[in-house]
From TrEMBL:
Keywords: Hydrolase, Plastid, Protease, Serine protease. Belongs to the peptidase S14 family. InterPro entries: ClpP, ClpP/crotonase-like_dom_sf, ClpP/TepA, ClpP_His_AS. PANTHER family: ATP-DEPENDENT CLP PROTEASE PROTEOLYTIC SUBUNIT (PTHR10381), CHLOROPLASTIC ATP-DEPENDENT CLP PROTEASE PROTEOLYTIC SUBUNIT 1 (PTHR10381:SF15). The gene is clpP. The keyword Repeat does not apply. It catalyses: Hydrolysis of proteins to small peptides in the presence of ATP and magnesium. alpha-casein is the usual test substrate. In the absence of ATP, only oligopeptides shorter than five residues are hydrolyzed (such as succinyl-Leu-Tyr-|-NHMec, and Leu-Tyr-Leu-|-Tyr-Trp, in which cleavage of the -Tyr-|-Leu- and -Tyr-|-Trp bonds also occurs). This is ATP-dependent Clp protease proteolytic subunit. GO terms for cellular component: endopeptidase Clp complex; plastid stroma. One of its GO terms (biological process) is protein quality control for misfolded or incompletely synthesized proteins. The active site is at 126. GO terms for molecular function: ATP-dependent peptidase activity; ATPase binding; serine-type endopeptidase activity.
Length: 197
């Protein structure tokens, strides 16, 4: 029998009795957000919505963004990244497994000094991949490719600004899959701290 999503008790500040809520709902109430799958438009919109809601609810308390993802689309990734920087609350990013591709970009997007990877985490950066499906043809194909190239160079510029590494080095690292230990990611400027062992 599948376990499903466990239910846990939660008592809000103005509630007399605890109610049973699913685990993720409870964690959201503690200002914890999770990216534990490939980032697509739907998941990106959900994360943007959660960040927005938590910021409206309390803009003075940090939001913890836990990442264990193989990456995903450049457009949803950039929208989440922009929202992370566009709210008053600090967004602390925490790599708890793998932060690859666009997930690495989101890990980088955390509040400086609040970007963490745990000791057994892996961080991987590489160039974005265009989703040029069979239905994309002719002029649409070139427009999509042009848009992806433009976003790619914006990502390189952002990596260079946030890591304080030269653009040529970031470009070189993104030409191939660059896997890093937490120590290497910290030396590269993607994270600031390594979590407890």
């Amino acid at each position: 029998m599948p376990v499903g999503i466990p239910k846990v008790p939660f008592q809000g500040p103005e509630e007399e009795e605890a109610s049973w809520v699913d685990l993720y709902n409870r964690l959201y109430r503690q200002r914890s957000i999770f990216l534990g799958e490939r980032l697509d438009t739907t998941m990106g919109n959900q994360i943007v919505g959660l960040i927005t809601y938590l910021n409206i609810e309390d803009s003075t308390t940090d939001i913890d963004f836990f990442i264990n993802s193989p990456g995903g689309g450049i457009r949803p990734g950039v929208s989440v990244y922009d929202m992370m920087g566009g709210v008053e609350a600090d967004v602390q990013t925490i790599c708890i497994g793998t932060a690859a591709s666009m997930a690495c970009f989101l890990l980088l997007g955390g509040e400086p000094t609040k970007r963490i990877a745990y000791p057994h985490a892996r961080v991987m950066m590489h160039q974005p991949i265009a989703d040029l499906t069979v239905s994309t043809s002719g002029l649409s194909y070139f427009m999509e490719l042009s848009e992806t190239v433009m976003l790619y160079y914006k990502c390189i510029k952002t990596y260079a600004q946030r890591t304080r590494k030269p653009t040529w080095l970031i470009h070189k690292d993104m030409l191939r899959d660059t896997f890093m230990t937490p120590e290497e990611a910290q030396a590269h400027g993607i994270i600031d701290q390594i979590g407890m062992d």
